[in-house]
Amino acid sequence: MSNTYLIASTKQWNIDAFMQERHRFSGSWSIITSNEDLTDELLSALSPRYVFFLHWNWIVPASILSSHECVCFHMTDVPFGRGGSPLQNLIARGFETTQLSALKMTEELDAGPVYRKEELFLGGSADEIFHRSARVAIDIIDWMVENEPVPVEQVGKVTKFARRRPAQSMIPHDVGIDEVYNHIRMLDAEGYPSAFMEHGGLRFEFKNARLVDNCVDATVSIRRNLNNKDEVQ
């Protein structure tokens, strides 16, 4: 059995989490960060035991899924919450914890059998949660390399999440303090559109939210709203 492994991720927090724990892993490990690097030629040359996808932005070709054991990590207790924007959809629904599910990848998104699930706390900003999930994923990878588990088919009612659109980052009207806090923090990570409000041709973007004494403290950036036709010259 091969002792070669490949990690594919577009997010630095996953790479950092792996490199911090690299001493735990035997074998030969490679990392790729772009879709252009994920080729049949590379995988044929490496012949990895597993290909671990952590926060990957592209559909993996069927030719790769059929010829290599590919593993992804989804932030819900599947089959609940298949689909896009799991973190934001969970927090918007009031979840405080979830399961990080390691799945064997199939052509149907998030529908593959499960290797392992681990609890994940959803407190803090999206950035903090993603860093936390990276550490949990590395622990699962360590366990998988050691045990080479057989994945088990998902059981239960399938519930699918829709991928959120940038326009949904606007803070809703007529919501309470807790909802405002959750809306800001669930979008506060690299690569995500910040929570925002609009007023008088200006756009107010919020980050670094803290909930203190029933008050939301946050950092705000104010800029002209270029989505407002009256503001475009």
Q: Work out the count of structural domains.
A: 2
Q: Spans of 5+ residues with little confidence (pLDDT < 50)?
A: 228-233
Per DSSP E runs of 2 or more residues, the count of β-strands stands at 11
Going by CATH, the architecture of the largest domain would be 3-Layer(aba) Sandwich
The CA-CA distance between the termini, in Å, is: 63 Å
Main sheet specs: 6 strands, mixed
- The name of the CATH topology of the largest domain is Rossmann fold
- The value of Rg in angstroms is 20 Å
Strand content: 25-35%
What fraction, in percent, of the residue positions are helical? 25-40%
What's the CATH class label of the largest domain?
Alpha Beta
The quaternary state of the protein chains shown equals: single chain
The strand line-up of the biggest sheet is 2-1-3-4-6-7
Protein name: Methionyl-tRNA formyltransferase
Keywords: Transferase
Organism: Pseudovibrio denitrificans
Domain Methionyl-tRNA formyltransferase-like C-terminal: 166-222
